[in-house]
Amino acid sequence: GQSLEQPSEVTAVEGAIVQINCTYQTSGFYGLSWYQQHDGGAPTFLSYNALDGLEETGRFSSFLSRSDSYGYLLLQELQMKDSASYFCAVRRGSNYQLIWGAGTKLIIKP
Amino acid sequence: NAGVTQTPKFQVLKTGQSMTLQCAQDMNHEYMSWYRQDPGMGLRLIHYSVGAGITDQGEVPNGYNVSRSTTEDFPLRLLSAAPSQTSVYFCASSSVGGAGGQETQYFGPGTRLLVL
Question: Do residues A44 and B107 lie in contact, with contact meaning Cβ atoms separated by under 8 Å?
Fold first, then answer.
């Protein structure tokens, strides 16, 4: 089957660095996406990796290893506003469907 | 641009009632989709469309209908509401094809539905 695994919760300290991992099983892999969702809000797109390596966008970076079916989201210089849930997602084969991980709740302590 | 809009924001239904959740986008996106999100869970795809006149089922289509008569609008109909359909519903849109086109989805603010 096709599935994504990510930790349910991660805790970090303001100003620190945190890594949120995602492993996936899917056929016909195209790329790995990351989304952020604040409580009561809608998911917002953060990044997309189609090729191996690190993509950096400001304080956020995303990494992909296709051979390991693994990726991670790296958040640097954590701010309280980064407290949210983070979801990874992949396309379901050649179909026009995204499948989603269950989300990682990031808790930031002052 | 307004992006993706959804109405209503909140709705309470009684078991057996029907209703339509509205979704519209002004980005000329071919792809539109409906998800439901239950507490502590990820998003589950209900139905999706890759263009006007084309719709298909996602993971959890039972109890829901959709239509896509225009590029902009993609309403979701609950035929006979059940308590199991209590959830938050998100509509999303994206382009199709290209590098990451479909993977970059834009979401509406959501509709919170309670079925009693």
Answer: yes
Taking the CA of residue A17 as centre, how many other CA atoms within 13 Å lie in the half-sphere pointing to its CB? 8
B99 CB neighbours in chain A (<8 A) are 31, 48, 50
In the prediction, which pLDDT does B95 show? Answer: 85
Residue spans of alpha helices (H) in A25-80: none
The residue in chain B having the minimum alpha-carbon distance to the alpha carbon of residue A4 is B42
Instruction: Tell me what the mean pLDDT of segment A74-100 comes to.
Output: 89
A·B CB contacts under 8 A: 63
Residues of chain B with pLDDT under 70: 97-100
Q: Mean pLDDT across the stretch A27-53?
A: 92
- A91 with B102: Cβ contact below 8 A: yes
Each residue's pLDDT tens digit, B24-34: 999 999 999 99
Instruction: Look at residue B103 in the predicted model and tell me its pLDDT.
Output: 78
Which residues are bridge partners to A86 per DSSP? A36, A104
A37 near A59, Cβ under 8 Å?
no
CB atoms within 10 A of CB B115: 19
What's at A7, amino acid-wise?
P
